[in-house]
Amino acid sequence: MMIPFGKVTALLLGISLLLAPAVCAAPSAPEYSGAYAGKIVWEGTVVMAGDVLILKGGQLIIRPGTEVRVVPAEGTQIDPEYLSSQTELLIRGQLDVQGTAESPVRFVMVERSGLEAISWAGITLDRAAGSSISHAFISRADIAIRCVASSPLLEGNQLTACRYGIVAQEQSHPKILGNLIADGEGGIFCWRGSKPYLKDNRIIGNAEEGIFVDATSRPWLDHNLISKNAIGLALYPTDLPYDPTVVQGNTEDLRQLGRQGQNGVQP
């Protein structure tokens, strides 16, 4: 029996479709927003669609090479659980950012029309124990990394074009090692009894202070390059040791703000 030509063509087309390899649509990046307990791992590309809170006892691990796409808040948020009205990564459990020099973790903004230069809150560690942030690229944050009664390891990060790079407050004692903090308003701020250890950081080209220390804080300054800022060191303590050879080329290298014990004013 002869099979009509049109049916032969249709039969061959059907066979070819069955034998062809399956083509799957690229999976969309997972989105995160809200409060999380337990252990969460971010890798590849993820989207912070809104505020993310890691609760006490929870853990967020961010693998090397991860791109975190931050969606800026559409308007002013009012939520007492968070510390900022902007999109915020708030850690009350544990944070482990595992970037490397070869595969850093990048926080990038999801752009939209009319977006301001400072467009998200940044990372806040609020009484977060055992945390570390290594080789992360963070830009355009209000405070790139804020430590509130927290003492993480902060190593090899690049914090650029932020309002403030690192703020240590409420008796925080982080290790701040080998970071670049550049082209923002201010570099590192030490508040309310904090004693961070600062070594081999480069704090360059900020519009205000490179390092600010209030009267109650006592950082250890170990060979940090502080240059091309409006003020290199702004200090309330009058006896804080530092190496003047690496505090050079600022509009004003050192500004003594007051007598020992005089209170500073938080920015």
Protein model, in words:
With 267 residues, this protein is mainly beta. It folds into two domains: 26-141 and 152-160, no CATH class; 163-267, no CATH class. Helices cover 6% and strands 41% of the residues. It is built from one helix and 25 strands. The chain has a 17-stranded parallel β-sheet that branches. The chain has an eight-stranded parallel β-sheet with strand order 2-4-7-10-13-16-19-22, with no helix packed on it. The protein is globular, with a radius of gyration of 24 Å. The model is unreliable at 5-26 and 260-267 (pLDDT under 50).
Brief summary of the model shown:
This protein has 267 residues and is mainly beta. It has one helix and 25 strands.
Largest sheet at a glance? 17 strands, parallel
Strand proportion: 35-45%
Poorly predicted runs of 5 or more residues: 5-26, 260-267
Number of helices: 1
Cα Rg: 24 Å
Shape annotation? globular
Termini separation comes to 90 Å
Task: Offer a few descriptive terms.
267 residues; 17-stranded parallel β-sheet; 25 strands; eight-stranded parallel β-sheet; disordered C terminus; mainly beta; single chain
Secondary structure elements and pairings:
Layout: H1 5-19, E1 31-36, E2 39-42, E3 45-54, E4 59-62, E5 67-70, E6 88-91, E7 94-98, E8 105-109, E9 122-126, E10 132-134, E11 136-139, E12 143-148, E13 153-155, E14 158-160, E15 164-169, E16 175-177, E17 180-182, E18 186-190, E19 197-199, E20 202-204, E21 209-213, E22 220-222, E23 225-227, E24 231-235, E25 252-256
Parallel strand pairs: 1-3, 2-4, 3-5, 3-6, 4-7, 5-8, 6-9, 7-10, 8-11, 9-12, 10-13, 11-14, 12-15, 13-16, 14-17, 15-18, 16-19, 17-20, 18-21, 19-22, 20-23, 21-24, 24-25
